[in-house]
Amino acid sequence: MRLRIFFAILLALPAAAAESGEAVYAQRCARCHELGSDRIPTRETLRKMPATRILRALNYGVMIAIAYTMNTSQREAVAKWLGTPGGDPEPSPAAFCADRSVKLAARPASQWNGWSPGADNARFQPAGAAGLNVDGVRNLKLKWAYAFEGDITAFAQPTILDGNLFVGSAGGAIHDLDAQTGCTRWVYQASGPVRSSILAVHEGARYMLLFGDQSGWFYALDAVTGKLLWKKKVEAHDAARLTGAPVAFHGVVFVPVASWEENRASDPAYECCTMRGSLVALRVRDGSQVWKTYMVDPPKRIGKKFGPSGAGIWSAPTLDIKRGLIYVTTGDNYSNPVTKLSDAVVALRIADGRIVWSRQFTDNDVFSGACVASPDCGPDFDFGSSAILVNAGGRSLLVAGQKSGVVHALDADKRGEVVWELRVGKGSRNGGVLWGMASDGQNVYAAVSDVSRKTHKPGDPADLRTNDVDPAAGGGLTAIRLSDGAKVWYAPAHPCDPPKPGCSPSQPAAVTAIPGVVFSGSNDGHMRAYAAEDGRVLWDFDTARDFDTVNGVPGHGGSIDGPGAVVVKGMVYVNSGYSRQSGMPGNVLLAFQ
Ligand code: HEC
Asked: Which of 12, 246, 316, 546 has its CA 20 to 30 A from that of 195?
């Protein structure tokens, strides 16, 4: 009897684990896709799409909000059941360069490598490498546009080495483009969307490209061939997401780990939460792990929930070779109990990952998707941007901007003691300072999102907007003097004129600086260059329009969110299109000269 029960369980297990695509469709898709609405693709239309594209729509496309409560196997099952086998369409032959050979010097003459040109994460390109001054910026003209096929978001920042532009995409395609002309040298298909910027590391006799994807995989490609050298899942949790860029030192790469489990908790049946933010150190050579440090202790079951959880790391770590430390900034807790390393700046030893000191800025911050239904939540004041390491006023400062709208300066020699703090925005769940600030050694330039959203209730299943954005609220750029935290100038936001759906003046994208100029992109689709001395606008380009593209794919710009402008050798590269956060979709990478 006992034995029969045992075997019955054994037989039942695999069946329970494998999702039925048909059942997922009936439960989660049919109510809209069987309606016969002319604005919703029918099942017959979906059946003609590649399964990879359906999966992408769920993971990072128009269906992202619907898929929030679905786990990975449900998404894969329904995509496979609906769609056709095989991958995405190959790029058209006309997109490729006549000469596809990749030339990379061991010491590149010009570059922007990774999240920031320097390990300090200041996002400052010096005059020589920028090849651009105030006059040059005033005369910037569009040189080429590249469109990511099938995507509705362009959120990856390019890395440029000696005329090679390496960039990821929401479709998970990694490209090597000619930085001058935009023609394609090679394409590599990753397993998930890639928004982390790519770090090129010279190891042994070759260049390796290191980056993470939105499903927890971390990759090393050969920069010359675009072929995979190794690939490793740095976090087994289903909801892991690698958004922050990696940094490397002496043959070791440091990978920040965050997650989307916070959104998963919008399903009331979901037992929130078990994901833990971490920093992982891997050998560049083969991806083997050197150390891994979690930001919270292992979760335990507490009633119907699990905790502690959260404290994801969303941004590139900051290396401090002199002190032998690596700094990360962290996000909120998803569930109780609260912990000390959430919404904090944390200093770890480069050698072994041991935590040396930490400074928390918002305590008691438990937040998840369940908070829509429950007001009993924290303010969701993550850090989404890296701490900048600078010397000012005879001190080494770590400057970190938070979604709370406050910029904090900490003394690197005094275990993160606060030197000054300045409020630059209202702060909210949507930020505050979101993806990054820039510093030219005098000032730090902090743009704020402060996007204002209200629930959109259409009663029309074809209208997928979950929120409307206020066309007049949010945005603004503040210059702060590093030595004492005084406000030097404030450049107000530009209300959307005329207002249009998805347009907001918010400035969530990371800021970039070169001598005399500060670049800041907005959700209104504009990339603007401001004078570093007084904040007046020097140059303004509206990217929210159609583009003829070098690869022949229809291109359209939209909101600018996520990374910031990249400036190398007289050229400025800008990504445009961000359909999340209720912004305007788009799929282009633009190059100005
Ligand atoms: C609330 C209604 C609704 C539900 C539920 C829904 N969809 Fe959709 N879906 C839409 C609408 C509307 C569009 C068209 C969006 C557009 O073109 O902007 C769409 C478009 C799509 C597309 C086309 C994306 C592209 O790249 O063009 C795919 C694929 C898709 N849905 C898959 C699914 C799957 C799979 C499910 C179930 C897991 C699902 N949808 C559930 C409303 C829905």
From this structure: 546
Query: Which tokens hold the place of 558?
Result: 């939209």
CB burial readout 243-266, b (16+ within 10 A) else e: bbbbbbeeebbbbbbbbbbbbbbb
Other beta carbons within 10 Å of 466: 14
Average pLDDT estimate for 211-240: 96
- Whether residue 64 has its Cβ less than 6 Å from ligand 1: no
Q: What is the mean pLDDT of residues 422-437?
A: 94
Dist. CA 333 → ligand 1 center (Å)? 31
Average pLDDT over residues 212-240: 95
In a domain, 13, yes or no: yes
Indicate which CATH number applies to the domain containing 39: 1.10.760
Flag whether 15 is in a domain.
Answer: yes
Q: Would the CB of 451 count as within 6 Å of ligand 1?
A: no
Q: Please state which of the ranges 45-49, 216-220, 547-551 shows the lowest mean pLDDT.
A: 45-49
Nearest residue to 572 (alpha-carbon basis) of 143, 117, 126, 128: 143
55 sits in which H/E element: helix 51-60
Ligand 1 centroid–CA 273 distance in Å is 27
Q: What is the mean pLDDT of the chain?
A: 93
464 C-alpha vs ligand 1 centroid, how far in Å?
9
Peptide bond preceding 108 in cis form (omega within 30 of 0): no
Q: So what's the pLDDT on residue 2?
A: 44
The distance of Cα 389 from the centroid of its chain, to the nearest Å, equals 21
Query: Residue 17: what pLDDT?
Result: 52
Judged by DSSP in three states, 8 sits in helix
d(CA 160, CA 166): 6
| Domain span holding position 52 | 2-82
- What atom of ligand 1 comes closest to residue 46's alpha carbon? 29
Residue 394 belongs to some domain of the structure: no
Ligand 1 centre from 50 Cα, in Å?
A: 14
- The verdict on residue 533 lying in a domain is no
Domain count, the chain: 1
Compute the distance from residue 62 Cα to the ligand 1 centre, in Å. 7
Specify whether the CB–CB gap between 560 and 580 falls below 8 A: no
The residue to mutate among 53, 58, 66, 148, having the most atoms of ligand 1 within 8 angstroms of its beta carbon, is: 66
pTM, two decimals, is 0.92
Query: Do residues 318 and 120 lie in contact, with contact meaning Cβ atoms separated by under 8 Å?
Result: yes
Closest CA to 561 of 546, 545, 577: 577
